[in-house]
Amino acid sequence: MPRGRFITLEGIEGAGKSTVIAQLGARLAARGLSVRTTREPGGTPLAERLRALVLERGDEQLAPEAEMLLMFAARRVHVDNLIRPALERGEWVLCDRYTDATRAYQGGGRGLPAALIESLAQLTHADVNPDVTLLLDVPVGLGMRRAAARRGAPDRFEAESTAFFERVRARYLDIARSEPARVARIDASQPLEKVVADALEAIEAIEARTR
């Protein structure tokens, strides 16, 4: 059986990833594909427990290095128990965030060295990397307003400063510029229907180039 496709969605808070991934999953399933949607950190029961450790705001300090290691621990659990098996069954996996999020948040936002992140990525999932990445890009101000409108108490990341998210967005845009064959930037400030249409078009374009 042919290996399935691995598609990741990235972007800052308020970019609309959860909504878009649900729409994409339904559209691709309507074409007769077997589609699995998931998220990071999380995606399996154990990885979701690690997600809670990363996102909860508590009294203890969580150093950037510890945060990054928890992310990669959750990612390895996710890859081993959900992503790789689904791909090997021929399913298309749509994932809300993956290692580009670590590059952007812990690298761009927290300032951790890119070489360290890449070494951990190689160790964690050298054989499981996205075929297509959709960067849902919005200005930081818009993203923060959207996120504030939908949430209750902010988690550790949602409580970060505008300057933090500007660094995160800048790193995401750097990634998109450096890997145009994999990463497609989608203007996520558009109406949802247009964002989903652009995302489907980007998937098809990258698929056509890699056949």
Number of domains: 1
Number of DSSP-assigned strands:
5
Q: CATH superfamily, please?
A: P-loop containing nucleotide triphosphate hydrolases
CATH fold-level label: Rossmann fold
Order of helices and strands: EHEHHEHHEHHEH
User: How far from one another are the termini?
Assistant: 16 Å
Question: What is the share of helical residues?
Answer: 55-70%
Low-confidence stretches: none
> In order across it, which strands form the biggest sheet?
2-3-1-4-5
The average pLDDT score comes to: 94
- Whole-number radius of gyration? 16 Å
Name of the CATH first level: Alpha Beta
Choose one word for the global shape: globular
Please work out how many helical segments DSSP would assign: 8
Strand content: 5-15%
- CATH second-level architecture: 3-Layer(aba) Sandwich
How are the SSEs placed, and which strands pair?
Blueprint: E1 6-10, H1 17-30, E2 35-39, H2 45-55, H3 64-88, E3 92-96, H4 99-109, H5 114-125, E4 132-137, H6 140-150, H7 162-178, E5 183-187, H8 192-210
Parallel strand pairs: 1-3, 1-4, 2-3, 4-5
Helix pairs in contact: 1-8, 2-3, 3-5, 4-5, 4-7
